[in-house]
Protein 1
Amino acid sequence: MSKNSYIVITNNPLVLERLNEGHKVIYKEISYEEILKEARDRIHDGHRLLTHPLSGSVKPNETPYKSILITERKEKMDEWSVKIIESAIQACGKFEFKSDKYKPEVYRDFQLIDWTLLESGLASADAW
C-alpha cells in the first residue's frame, strides 16, 4: 500500500497535530462512540478497516480519544469490516462513560496512548 492510501479518522488533537501534513486526516470533536459511527458510515460506503477499532487495553468510554485507519479507496462493502465496527459500537454501550471524570492532565496521557496505537498501525499501513 502506498503512502496516503489510507484515511485517519480521529477525535484526538495530538493525532491532528502530528499528522497535519502528508496524511489524510478527518478530525472531528466528537465522542469515542461517534468516531466509531463515523468509521462505520464510511465502511458502509465501501472503505475497509485497517486498524481494529478496539485496539489497546483501554476500554471504550474510559478514554475520550480514538483514531481509526481505513482505506482511502472505496470498493464493495467489506463484511468483515462491518462486523468488526458494529461489534465495537455495541461494546461501547457495555461500558460506563468515565472519560469526563479525569483531571485535565490525564487527557494528554490518553492522547499519547491513542497516538502510540495509531503510530503502530501507520507503520504497518506504510509498509504495505
Protein 2
Amino acid sequence: MQDVLAELAAIWRTGATAGLGTVVRTFRSAPRQPGAAMVVAPDGSVSGSVSGGCVEGAVYESATEVVATGMPRLERYGVSDDDAFAVGLTCGGVLDIFVEPVSQRRFPHLDQVIDAIAEHRPVAIATVITHPDPDWLGRRLVLQPETVDGTLGSDRADAAVTDDARGLLAAGRSDVLTYGPDGQRRGEGMEVFVASHAPRPRMLVFGAIDFAAAVAQQGSFLGYRVTVCDARGVFATPARFPTADEVVVDWPHRYLAAQAEAGALDARTVICVLTHDAKFDVPLLEVALRLDVGYIGAMGSRRTHDDRLSRLREAGLTEAELSKLASPIGLDLGARTPEETAVSIAAEIIARRWGGRGLPLSDVGGRIHHDDDGSPLPAGQLSDHLSRY
C-alpha cells in the first residue's frame, strides 16, 4: 500500500470512498510481491499496480464493485483459473488479491499509518481477508511497537493477531496468518494479512566522489534512505549529491560506529565504500565487517583489494568477517562510467538480497523469481499451498 498511500490518503481526506486491491499472497513467478496495491479513485482514475499490467483490468472491475456494494472480497488470479488467460495472467504465477472499499468509516486509523510512514516509524496493518462471517471481512488492526488501534471482532482474535503481527513487524515481513474464527491459534477459517511498513532501508555511501553521486541516485531509485559521508567538507556537500537524503561531514569509521551504537542500522542496511584510500577504508571496514548488515562492498582494483585484505587481517579481522566483503564492488557488466558502475553495484546488491546469480536469464533454467531466502520454490510447494483453498 505504501506505493499508493499519497493517492489513497487524498481520497480518504475528502470523505470519499476508494477501491483498494492489495496483493496478499503469491505463488511461483508472480509479478508483484505481497503488499503491492492499486487504488481506484471515485473519478475512475487508477494509481499503482498489482501485477505489472496482467490483471489490472479485472481488479479495476472488482474494486468498482466493492465500492458500490460495500462488501470486500478475496480473489485469485493464475493459470490454474479458467479465466486466467482472459485476464492476461500468463506468466505462470498465482496472485491472491484482497479488494476492499476504503473510507474514513471503514479505515478510521489511516491517518496514523500515514503519519508513521512519513516519520519513518514502523507500523503494521492487520486485515481480515477470509472469515466464515462476512461482517469480519476488512476489519483491521493498526499496530505500532507500543500501540494498537482498531479491532477484528473479538478480544481473543485481537490479542492473538497483535502478538503475531508485532513479530512480523519487527522482522519487516508481510504475511498471511491463519487462525480459527475467533482467533484460535490451532484453528482454521480466519486469515489475516499483515502488511508491515518498516522504515526505508538505509544505504550508506562513503567517499564523496563522482561514483558516489551515481550510486546515491541508484540507491534512491531502489527505495533506500541514502546517506553520503566523507571527512572532506569541501567535497561532501548537498549540492553535489542532490538525490541523497543526507550528506554528512565526518570521518567514515567514526560516523558508522556512532550509527551502530545508536541502533540506526539493521540487517537491511547497505554499505558502499568508494574512497579506495587505505586511511579511510581500513578503519571503516574494521567497523563495518563486524556489523550485522545486508551488504558491504568496497571499490578498488585487484591490487587495492589484496592490500586492503592484508591490512584488515593485520587489524585482527577473521576470515569469516572478511568473507562478508564484496570487493571489488559490483557485478561484471563491463561498466566504465560512474553511472554504469552504479548500475553494476545496484545489481549486486539486488542479487545478494534475493539470492540471484547475476547471470542472463536466457542462460539459466528454473524459476525467474526467488523466495526471500534466495532459494527456488521446492517442487510441489505450489500444489501444497493451493490444496489449502
Protein 3
Amino acid sequence: MNRVGLRLGGCFPVASLIQRRAVSYTLPSIKTLDNNKTTNTDFQGLFSSKTVDELWYKRGTHLVEGLNQLLEENNVSNRPSDLNQLIQQTFNKPDLFGVYAYASLLHNLQFYMESLKPNTTAEASQNVKQCGPEELLKTPLIADVYNNEPTDPALRDWISNSFGSVAEFRTLLLNSAKGIKGDGTVWLVAQAFYSEKTVKNEKNQYTTLAVMNTYNAGIVNDSIRSGQVTKLQQQKQAKADFLKRKQLERQNAETEGKVEEVIEEEEGVEETKNESKTDDLVLGTVEEAEASALFLDKKLIPLLAIDASPRNYLLDYGVYGKQQYLDNVWDCIDWNVVAERAPVRSKPTIDYI
C-alpha cells in the first residue's frame, strides 16, 4: 500500500489519499476528526459528533466509493496521484463527468475540513443550537467585536491591504457564503496576474487576495476556468467564420448573375452582414469585456474554503441557523493552515516618472 500525496488547489500538500495498486482511493485521515470519532466527542464550537460522522465519514466514504466505482466502470487507467490532475483530465470529457464531479466534491470537502480547528472558548458550545425564524430578520453588519482573528502578521497585512480590514473581510466572506442558495462553497484565494509578455520561467507574483464562490461540484482551478473561456471564444469565432463564409458565397453567387435563391444554412447570416458593416472601433458587449479578462490573465491559489451547503447546518442549527453556523465557522478557522497555504506575497512597486 502506497501513500500518495494529494495536492489541493494545485499547489500545497495538505493530506493524503491512499491509492491501492494504482486503482482505488480511500478517505484521507484528518487527525482532529479521527480523535472526535474515537472519543465520540463533538467538534467543539461547530458540530456535534453526529454531524461530523454524517458530513465527513458517511458522505466522504460515499464520495470515495462513488469515485472508485466510476473509475472502474469507465476503465480509467493511468490515474494520477494528484486529485487536481484527475479533475483537469476529466473536466472536458462529458462521458467522465461523474468522475469529475465526485473528485471535485471530495477535494472541496477535504479542503474545507482541513481548514478548521475546534473552538475551545467557554461559550463555544452554547452557540451550537437550533435557531428560530427571528434569525432571518437580523441585518448584516460589519462586526466591531469578534473572535479568532488571524495572528500571522504577513497574512493580516495582506488581508487588510486587499479588503480594507479584517472586519470587512469577515463580513464579505460570511455574507458571500450566506448568499449561496443550495450547495456551494466560498473561497479565499490568492491571485497572480500576468501578461503574454511574461517570461515562462518567471515565477507568478501573487499580489492580491479575493473572495469567490463556487457551486455544486465547482472547484477553484484557473486552468479549468481559463479553458472554459478559451473554448467559448473559439466556438464563437468558428460560428462567425462560418457565417461570413456563407455570406461571401451568397455575394459571389449574386455577382455571377445567378438568380436562383441561395438557401441559408445557418441562422444569423443577416446579423453577420450588418455586423461586417460596423466600425472596428465600436466597443463590444459587457459579457465580451468580462470574458477578455476572466481567468485568462491570472493564477489562483485557494487558501480557505467554507462549505455553505444546507447539509452543514441543518442537523445542529436548524432551517434558520445558517448565520449562526457561519459565525461559528469563523471562530473555528485554523489561520495557521491558511497561512501555510499562502504563497509568497509580491507587493507592487510604484514607478515614479
Protein 4
Amino acid sequence: MSVATMTTNKFQTCIDECNRCSQACYECFKACLNESDVNARKNCISILVECAQMCQMSSSLMSMNGQFIKDHCQLCATTCDKCAQECSMFKDEHCQKCAQECRTCANECRKMAGI
C-alpha cells in the first residue's frame, strides 16, 4: 500500500529495501569513519555513500513511477553488489550487516528491473 495515494504499489518491496539499504550504508559509513584502520577503508567508505545515494534515488523514482526506473534499478543493483563486495572485506559487525542489506537490495532491484 503506498503512503499518500492509498493504492497498491507494485514497487513497495523494492522501495522498502532501497530505504533499508540506504540507511545501512549511512550507518556503516559513520561507523567506518571511527575504525582504527580508516585508511584501509577508503574504497569502502566511498562506495557506501554512492550506494546510499543510488538507493535513495531509486526509491524516489519508484515512488513517482518514473520513466527510467528499470534502468536505474539495474544500476542500483550493480552499485549494491559492489558495496556488498567492499563491505564484506571487513569483519566487523556493521560492515557484515551492511553487506547483507546491500545483497538483499541488489536482489530486489534486479527483480524490479526485470518487470
